[in-house]
Amino acid sequence: MADGSIDAQRLMELVIATYHSYETDYEAIERSTETLLRENQTLRGNLSALSQAFDGQKKLFEIVLNNLPLGLSVFDAGQRLTLYNIRFPQLFGLTPEDIAAGATIAELIGKMRGNESTASKTVRQTARTSLAKTGSSSIRRREWQMHDGRIIQSVVTILSDGSSIAIHADITEDRKAAQRITYLAHHDPLTGLPNRMYFREQVDATLAERKPHEQIALVHLNLDRFKSINNTIGVSVGDKILQQVAERIRAWAGSENMLARLGSDEFAILQTGKQQPRNVTALADQIRRALSEPFLNGEKQVTLSVSMGIAIAPENGGEPDILLKNAGVALSHAKADGRKRERFFTGEMEAQMQLRHALEVDLRVAVENEGFELHYQPLYDLAERRTCGFEALIRWNHPVRGRVPPMDFIPLAEEVGLVVDIGRWVLRQACRDAAQWPESIKVAVNVSAIQFRSGNLMQDVSEALAAAGLSPSRLELEITESVLMENLNEVLPILHALRDRGIRISMDDFGTGYSSLSYLSSFPFDKIKIDKSFVNDIVDNKEAHAIMRAIILLGDALGMRVTVEGVETAAQLTLLECEECDEIQGYHISPPRPVRDVPHLLSLPPKSSGATAFPTLER
């Protein structure tokens, strides 16, 4: 047109382009709106002429505008409304009377409402002027907090003469989604507690704001053996218990301290503004007692205990990562010391952790290179007065450290996930060695709970027997009560399958657990091995003798052989012969010996109660 106005068709194209840009990019909104106004400088006052000249295009234009999900409004230089679509009054709760021709911006703001019951309240607004400017126009964004909770965002392009065109959108759901994403990024979805990332940020902020003489305590908590409990009761029930755990800790931690969930069964507390270490010790004691109360799972009760590691700033670290690490180190020592306790971080712990890490590295190398060997301790049949088998016991001769005791590296192997690989190697090597012995000699191998839970024990046993060509009847697997405690329902089918193949199953360390008798009724063990702690006093202590006799009679009644471990004297052997015990094992017969000594041990004469121990072999 000669006066510089754009036609209705062009205006419609620009509005559609603006709407499309709004959906994809806020910055594109601004560019599209600027283009719309730059090409339509004389839109103000000429809209009626435009509609008369292009009546057909005007109707199409109105249809497009009124079907946009976004609101559109145009104000002239006097801040009076000249054009809008149907969505505009809907977004702001305006009536037809409110938006009568010529209504000013100020008048419309005064009439905005979310619903009739809150119409008298003031609508809150925030405004931001965009840094981007094109020509003589500028772009601003405004947000309107409506009474019904909705958030309306307006992108307004203002020309140099004060006229403007704006696009309005309800961004309530987008804002809620963004807030939800932010919340999930910083919180644990199960318990609603802050997560590890957010907790670290808070530790960082708290350390930065710490006053010169203020001490800050960080407590790292871990539920003892919760994975075993979780496997027993099921993950869904375990999650409910974790929620209860979080509530109990939250109640004792109080609102002044920050509680977070760091992992599956790990929590942390940041305690500030307190006299340390006295108050954190009191807090740890309260939490330990709170978690010792049984948790209900239907009619059943689940009992938990907790271990805690404590680090105090600034003594144990002034940086968040250092403080968190040191609390974790203290927690590891609490668990190593028997669990159910708390430990404060000390410098000596750090040195020990460095040694432990080095040992772990060496252990991984030993597993990869099969750097172990097996020693064998005889199992002696008292009735036949002969060695009837050997128990395989792993040994690790470190090239630098020398002999590393099993009690030092087996728990470490369990903790770092190497015990399955080690157990698989022991099975294969023991079967391979036993295949070289007389057919009447069996071999006993210890199997851990982790091999049942995390490995494929049936396959490992089958492959070991097949590779060695060993009869299943010559293999005896020794398990402790903890294997059954892990998950009885999953373990029993495996035990039955092993026994059906002809493999003998023995309960090791009988009498040291809480439920040994109940487990004897759960599975038909071939043998029970009485722990050596029961043997020490059987000669001089009548009560210990009576307990030993009762266990031997129990095994006989159940059709299970009984092996007594830790026999070290002739007097103990004599007493066990009188009680008609089936087998004995201990230093009175022989200590564990390398595989090369097995033929010599088998060639020794029968053992009598009055004789001295077998000749000592070179160790």
Chain-wise SSE layout:
Blueprint: H1 8-24, H2 26-38, H3 47-53, H4 55-66, E1 71-75, E2 81-84, H5 87-92, H6 105-111, E3 124-134, E4 137-145, E5 151-158, E6 164-170, H7 172-186, H8 196-208, E7 216-223, H9 226-233, H10 235-253, E8 258-261, E9 266-271, H11 278-292, E10 295-297, E11 300-302, E12 306-313, H12 320-336, E13 342-344, H13 347-369, E14 373-381, E15 386-398, E16 402-404, H14 406-416, H15 419-434, E17 442-446, H16 449-454, H17 457-468, E18 475-479, H18 481-486, H19 488-500, E19 504-510, H20 516-520, E20 527-530, H21 542-557, E21 561-564, H22 570-578, E22 583-584, E23 593-594, H23 598-603
Parallel strand pairs: 12-13, 15-17, 17-18, 18-19, 19-20, 20-21, 21-22
Antiparallel strand pairs: 1-2, 1-6, 3-4, 4-5, 5-6, 7-9, 7-12, 8-9, 10-11, 14-15, 14-22, 14-23, 15-16
Structural account:
The chain is an alpha/beta fold and 619 residues long. The chain has three domains: 66-120 and 138-177, 2-Layer Sandwich (Beta-Lactamase); 188-348, Reverse transcriptase/Diguanylate cyclase domain (Alpha-Beta Plaits), CATH 3.30.70.270; 388-602, TIM Barrel, CATH 3.20.20. It is built from 23 helices and 23 strands. It has an eight-stranded mixed beta barrel. Strand 3 and strand 4 form a beta hairpin. Helix 1 packs antiparallel against helix 2 (26-38) and helix 3 (47-53) packs across helix 4.
